[in-house]
Write a structure and sequence with these properties.
The chain is mostly helical. Helix 1 packs antiparallel against helix 4.
């Protein structure tokens, strides 16, 4: 059976990056274009596509059907997490510096989806870059 075969860690990350890119594109489109104005069959097709992307994201995140990584991939995962944490830390520091006293930042569901999918996409792409160009 095909599902019994294990996918490589790089293929897992490529598939995850593709699905996160689809989710990010849908989140950005929904942010700028009225979704309620779309015909019902188009909304159903988009919902099915995003549902399938969501299932693939969960499977790739949990590592289902994926072979176990080696020491190099574990080091690349550690470097990816460290780089993303540093970028997040710098962004929060810039936000604290740029916000005026007493101002509040509100993040809605749409913005949170875009931020989360951007971070997850960046994590997959950065891992793939480390896999490709690290020595």
């Amino acid at each position: 059976m095909y599902l019994s075969k294990r996918m490589s860690l790089t293929r897992n990350r490529q598939l995850g990056a593709l699905c996160w890119a689809l989710i990010l594109a849908a989140g950005l489109c929904a942010r700028f274009f009225p979704v309620r104005g779309l015909p019902f069959p188009v909304r159903i097709a988009v919902a099915v596509l995003l549902g399938a992307a969501g299932v693939v994201v969960v499977c790739t995140t949990l590592g289902l059907f994926t072979e176990k990584g080696d020491e190099r991939s574990a080091e690349n995962e550690r470097r990816t997490n460290a780089a993303l944490f540093t970028l997040f830390f710098l962004a929060m520091g810039a936000g604290l510096f740029l916000l005026k006293d007493g101002r509040t930042v509100l993040i809605g569901k749409g913005e949170l989806l875009v931020i989360f999918s951007s971070v997850c996409l960046a994590k997959d792409l950065l891992f793939l870059a480390y896999e490709r160009w690290s020595g």
